[in-house]
Design brief:
Strand 6 and strand 7 (207-210) form a beta hairpin. The protein is built from 22 helices and 17 strands. 52% of the residues lie in helices and 20% in strands. Helix 18 (593-604) crosses helix 21. The model has no long low-confidence stretch (mean pLDDT 79).
Length: 664
């Protein structure tokens, strides 16, 4: 019985423990499942965070503006970031596995051991970040200075297996630092070796700095003065009293040009001029004064001598003033004399020239006298030109020149000059041309046309005189003036003549001056260019010359001209451009006598009642009205047809010869 009860108890106990452990196992299993799921979720979260961190680090690695290199203790490259690829001009695939010093840094083999030794020292230092600075090479010749921050990476056993190096290119900063140091050295050199003295005083007037120049003047060393001397130790008693009187306004007012007497170490003295400015701190408190000192001893000595000479100079000035007044009176008398004498000379000369022209046209004049009459005429004209030049010069010097303004066009001005010079140039077979004729179209101004024409006549006359072959060109250029109604007109006369020596260019615009070659080449007074220069000045312009001996000359003058707003109709009709090149008249310099006879017969015919008007219009070159007048003549005549043709094409030589040979 007892055995059965014991067996039942044992079986119950075993059953109880079995049930208990079974339930405990189920609870533990369930708990493990819960923990597993929780750990799985945590692991996924940790993995996600790790991936995000890795992505961030990779982004930093890829986008960093620094060189990042991972390398092993045997100096083999594990990886480089994109910035390092761009910096060293070597892609990642080329760099990995290569020698860091020889292949990436391109250090020459003779210097590579030194750099490797420097890098190997990283493994013997306990710091986490080890900084180094050395040069690397980019390309062949481009040496760059890089500062490195190195960090040793260790495995789980504490052994270094890799180095992470982060580099920053500081080449430009190093250059800037070197330049800054050089600038500082230059400034210091300028400060110490300046031709004037510099010193600074604190608020107690103690010298805190001084340059070498002032030390040399005083005879002290820097150690003797700086921090030991007050300003009163360097001044004579009288200068110190003066300094105390003016210092009360300082530092609110700077000191300028204060004359003081300094004492040298050897007790000798010298005079200075002192300028001083104050320096304040952020709170506005006076800190230091900076002074510039000039040695004026020589000036003081010179001032004493100047006082001695002042009375003599004043006396001499009075004498010179009297001499100047006498010279002015003499010059005025000369101008009046020239003015009167030239007026008196021109009257008989006009008579001589007129009578010589009459005699030359006299059919009864013997042949052996024609040469004398022609010589009389040419010399009379030459002498009249000289007298006119002297008269113009005397008017200018006497201040009696007046401006006579009239309305004109540049085309009118050119036509007048062409009619005056084209046949004279054609006779010498010299090419006379207006360059860029389109520039002068529709250019209307109001100015002193007579004076402008006189300037150009002088310049073209000189060009004709001193040019034996080649060309003479006239060119106009238009520039806008300071005001909208003003044009700056450039007149340019260029020739291929004998030229002017460089050492004589400065004097060609002086009165009665001719170049050595010019005076031996042609006769003249030497007044033409002087008058032209003074006329240009009178009209508010400028003139200059460019020339080289044997290579021609170029005269350029510029005048401000008032543009016309309302242009008269008759001025527009007169401003139709004619020939612009003397070659157009070369072929007609020899006039057909039969054509002249036909025209003279037409003028002298009984049916023609306009002979005198026709000749007058030819004289004043009013070709527009002349064509209208010829159109009014009702009858047809071969001479009329020839004259119409000559007028339309402005055959100046034919028309001038016609007027001179036709009796009115």
């Amino acid at each position: 019985m007892m055995d059965q009860i014991l067996a039942i108890l044992i079986a119950s106990t075993l059953l109880f423990y079995a049930y208990f452990y079974h339930n405990a196992y189920r609870r533990e299993k369930k708990l493990r499942q819960i923990l597993f799921r929780k750990n799985l979720i945590n692991a996924e979260e940790i993995e996600r965070v790790i991936r995000e961190k890795e992505k961030q680090y990779q982004d930093i690695y890829d986008t960093a503006n620094s060189i990042i290199i991972r390398w092993s203790p045997d100096f083999r490259i594990h990886s480089v970031n994109p910035y390092a690829e761009e910096f060293f001009q070597m892609c990642k695939d080329q760099a990995e596995g290569k020698d860091l010093v020889l292949d990436l840094f391109r250090i020459p083999s003779e210097s590579s051991n030194e750099i490797k030794s420097l890098l190997w020292n990283i493994f013997h230092r306990p710091e986490q970040n080890i900084r180094q600075e050395f040069d690397v090479f980019v390309g062949v010749d481009d040496k760059r200075t890089v500062t490195w921050s190195n960090r040793i990476l260790k495995n789980e056993f504490g052994y270094p297996y890799e180095v992470l190096s982060i580099g920053i290119d500081i080449t430009n900063r190093k250059i800037a630092e070197e330049n800054l140091m050089k600038s500082y050295e230059r400034i210091l050199d300028l400060y110490n070796n300046a031709p004037c003295g510099y010193h600074s005083l604190d608020k107690d007037n103690i010298v805190v700095s001084i340059n070498d120049t002032e030390l040399e003047w005083l005879g002290y060393s820097r150690e003797e003065i700086v921090g030991n001397f007050r300003i009163n130790d360097l001044l004579t008693p009288s200068s110190f009293e003066k300094f105390q009187q003016i210092i009360h306004s300082f530092p609110y007012d700077p000191l300028t040009g204060v004359e003081l007497e300094f004492i040298r170490k050897d007790k000798s003295t010298f005079f200075v001029s002192l300028n001083s400015i104050p320096t304040f701190d952020k709170e506005g408190n006076f800190v230091i004064s900076k002074s510039t000192v000039f040695d004026i001893t020589d000036r003081k000595i010179a001032a004493d001598k100047l006082n001695d000479y002042s009375q003599k100079i004043q006396l001499q000035n009075k004498r010179l003033q009297k001499a100047v007044e006498a010279a002015i009176k003499a010059n005025q008398s000369k101008s009046v004399f020239f003015s009167k004498i030239t007026h008196e000379l021109r009257t008989p000369l006009h008579a001589v020239i007129g009578f010589s022209q009459i005699l030359e046209k006299d059919p009864n004049l013997p042949d052996h006298l024609k040469g004398y009459v022609n010589s009389l005429y040419e010399n009379g004209v030459h002498l009249l030109g000289m007298i006119n030049d002297i008269l113009d010069l005397s008017k200018i010097e006497a201040g009696k020149m007046t401006e006579i303004r009239e309305k004109f066009s540049l085309i009118q001005l050119w036509d007048t000059l062409f009619s005056m010079f084209s046949y004279r140039f054609a006779e010498k077979q010299i090419h006379f041309e207006l360059l860029n004729p389109e520039v002068i179209e529709n250019r209307y101004y109001e100015a002193d046309l007579q004076k402008i024409r006189q300037i150009l006549v002088n310049l073209l006359g000189n060009a004709l005189k001193f040019t034996n072959q080649g060309f003479v060109n006239l060119e106009f250029k238009i520039k806008y003036g300071l005001e909208p109604n003003i044009d700056l007109v450039l007149f340019i006369v260029t020739d291929s003549g004998i030229g002017i020596p460089r050492d004589e260019l400065h004097s060609i615009f002086e009165a009665f001056q001719q170049t050595e070659q010019g005076s031996s080449y042609q006769e003249g007074t030497g007044l033409g260019l002087s008058i032209s220069h003074q006329l240009v000045d009178f009209l508010g312009g400028t003139i200059h010359v460019e020339s080289e001996l044997g290579h021609g000359s170029k005269f350029i003058f510029e005048l401000p001209l008032l543009k016309l707003v309302d242009i008269p109709l008759d001025l527009i009709q007169k401003s139709k451009i004619g020939p612009t090149n003397s070659k157009e008249v070369w072929q007609i310099t020899k006039i057909d006598d039969k054509e002249k006879d036909y025209v003279q017969n037409f003028l002298n015919s009984k049916e023609n009642l306009y002979k005198n008007e026709i000749l007058q219009m030819i004289k004043i070159q009013n070709f527009g009205q002349l064509l209208q007048l010829l159109g009014k003549i009702p009858f047809e005549d071969k001479g009329k047809t020839i004259l119409l043709e000559k007028v339309k094409h402005k055959r100046y030589k034919f028309l001038i010869d016609l007027v001179q040979s036709t009796s009115t």
